[in-house]
Amino acid sequence: MQIMDTTLEKADPHLFAVCQAVYSNVDTNLHYIWENRLKDTLWTKDVYWIINHGKRIGGAIISEDWVRFPFLIPPFYDRQLLWDALYYLDKHNVLTMNKVLGALDCDVPVLLTQGYKVIMSRRMMCRPTERLQFSLGQEYAFRIPDAEKDIDEIASVIESGYKGGIDYDIFGPSETGEAKKDVIYYFDAYQKTNTLYQSVAVTDVKANKIIGVCIAGRHPEENPEIYSFISDLAVLPDYRRKGIAEFMLNYAISNAKQTSQLIGLCVTVGNYAENLYKHCGFFGGPIFNNMEKRL
């Protein structure tokens, strides 16, 4: 099929959400609930059908300078056709496609040939909750974080854990106060569902300081029917490889059992922690890639 005579047509958001969930054939967020899969696109009205020679060949979320979650509609299955159509629209200023968000691994080779590069690859991981055995050496203690008194110290632990990791390599230093804002946000969210108890702070008894933290709980808006979520896991560099991260994961998995069937997290592909998550029983979902046009 030739790409000339390719246009965009505004889509009905609900029909678009249904088509995207069915025809993309991936559940990147591991929702497991149909209604929650639809929410992946229902948050926006910037949804469009891709029309070629009068035929609807697919759809995508298109906004500002990016394209997200593109999919083909049968009888069209050739991903090259999809991206050629979008690239044609970009070239003729119908849309601006400086970035592609949520590209699947099958899309990466095509986009590489069209002058894009991978900026970040991520995936959701989850596992069933269950009661597990967990313990620490006598030199450490653990407790539920104090949502007021511990914020600054926990933010500092997260910032230290962030340095030198793959996310640091990708994004560089975090903005001043960013970690603290995230801690406050998740503490507030998990307190609203009374599930902050799924979080844990590990302290060095002798040094009397927090050396590891796992922030977990049920978010009131993000798939709360079956999921708890680990939003942060960090250990100070001098205390790594002592089993502290595995202890905190098992703590969260066990305590989440009270309210949730599953516990999940999001990880950057290539993060050394991904092997730890697999070791602790987490299953990895499809990889989604953020890409941008080369200069």
Count of structural domains: 2
CATH superfamily placement of the largest domain = Gcn5-related N-acetyltransferase (GNAT)
Global morphology:
elongated
**Strand coverage percent:** 25-35%
So what's the CATH class of the largest domain? Answer: Alpha Beta
What's the structural blueprint in terms of helices and strands?
Blueprint: E1 6-10, H1 13-23, H2 34-42, E2 47-52, E3 55-63, E4 66-72, H3 79-91, E5 99-104, H4 108-113, E6 116-128, E7 140-143, H5 151-162, H6 166-171, H7 178-192, E8 200-204, E9 209-217, E10 227-235, H8 244-256, E11 262-268, H9 273-279, E12 283-284, E13 288-293
Parallel strand pairs: 4-5, 10-11
Antiparallel strand pairs: 1-2, 2-3, 3-4, 5-13, 6-11, 6-12, 6-13, 7-8, 8-9, 9-10
Structure, explained:
The chain has 295 residues and is of the alpha+beta class. The protein has 2 domains: 6-114, Aminopeptidase (3-Layer(aba) Sandwich); 126-284, Aminopeptidase (3-Layer(aba) Sandwich). The protein is built from 9 helices and 13 strands. It has helices at 13-23, 34-42, 79-91, 108-113, 151-162, 166-171, 178-192, 244-256, 273-279; strands at 6-10, 47-52, 55-63, 66-72, 99-104, 116-128, 140-143, 200-204, 209-217, 227-235, 262-268, 283-284, 288-293. Strands 1, 2, 3, 4, 5, 6, 7, 8, 9, 10, 11, 12 and 13 form a 13-stranded mixed beta sheet that branches. β2 and β3 (55-63) form a beta hairpin. α5 (151-162) crosses α7. The radius of gyration is 22 Å and the shape is elongated. The two termini are 29 Å apart. The model has no long low-confidence stretch (mean pLDDT 94).
